[in-house]
Write the structure tokens for this entry.
Amino acid sequence: MPPSNTSEQIVEALAAEGVEYVFGIPGDENLHFMEALRKDGRIKFVLFRHEQAAGFAAAAYGRLTGKLAVAMSTLGAGAMNLTTPVAHAYLAAMPMLVITGQKAVRDNRMGQYQLVDVVDVMRPITKFAAKIPSGQMAGSLLRQAMMAALGGRQGPAHLELPDDVARETELGPLVPCRFGDIPVATQDSIEAAAKLIQNASRPLIMVGGGTAPTGPPSRRRYGN
């Protein structure tokens, strides 16, 4: 069945892009997203006792696998608890997607309880941060967030999902993420480099954090 609301469309898109885990703590403002996860069944929700731990789990998962995981929280203090792992992921180039709840757009200035401008807080420590203003914009903004997190120098991206937008039924299109081809050296260049290394008396291999998804065993084999 096609998604019936914004939350279901977001979950559908995440699953289609290979997301396997959502780490976090549920609350009133993300119950529609939680229900969408339950109905879809392809993405596992892992409950934590503190949002900070959930954020570090998502960041570590991204560093170790090269794949995207979601750190989820409710609004206000819950969202603020994610700022430390998000800043860490930004500095260490760890891909992760943060989805935080928020009061309904139509009444988010009625009463200030736990009302924090989370998007403005997240913007300096993420590659992309935005509020989803409507169901019709959800697919486009989700694509931008995922491509920002996984493209180039990887890092965290943040989306704020207000309570009323999470249950909207007027949806826009979903466009799959598309990344440019990674440059690959020619066979002649590889053979020339290998010959230089073999003939070196003291070869030195400098490996950056961007090779993390290949795993330490492959680096050890190459070094040996």
In short: The two ends are 52 Å apart (CA to CA). The mean pLDDT is 89. The CA atoms of residues 94 and 176 lie 21 Å apart.
